[in-house]
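As noted in the main text, all predictions were made from sequence alone. Below is one such record, for Asp23/Gls24 family envelope stress response protein.
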Amino acid sequence: MAVKIKTQYGTIDITNDVIATVVGGAATDNYGVVGMASKNQIRDNVNDILRRENYARGVVVRQEENGVAIDVYVIVSYGTKISEVSRNVQSKVKYNLETMLGVTANSVNVIVQGVRVLAD
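Prediction:
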C-alpha cells in the first residue's frame, strides 16, 4: 500500500519502503539508538542490527484516514534513559516525515527490542 498525495499536476505515490527508509534514518540518527531491529526476530532469525537497506524490516507503516501510524523497532545503548531516547525518536521521525515527504504521522510507536553495551 502506498500513500497518495494529490496535487494540481497529478498524483504522487509514496511507497511504504520509502517511508520505512526515512523513518529508519531518522531513528538511527538519534543519540542512544544503536540501530534498528527486526520486527519479527524469530521468523527472520536475526538478532543483529539492521543495515540501511533492511530498514523496512524494522518499521511497520499503517495507513490511516488523514496520515500514517508508524511502529519503529530499535535497539538502544546501555546507560541511556530509554524514555528520553524514545521521545527523541518520536519527534525526529514526525519531523522528517513532514519535511521530507509531506506525510503526517498520527502516531509513532517506539518498541525497544534490546539494549546493547557499546565497546569503545
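The helical segments are 16-28, 41-44, 82-101. The first strand starts at residue 2 and ends at 7. These features were considered when defining construct boundaries for the mutagenesis experiments described in Section 2.9.
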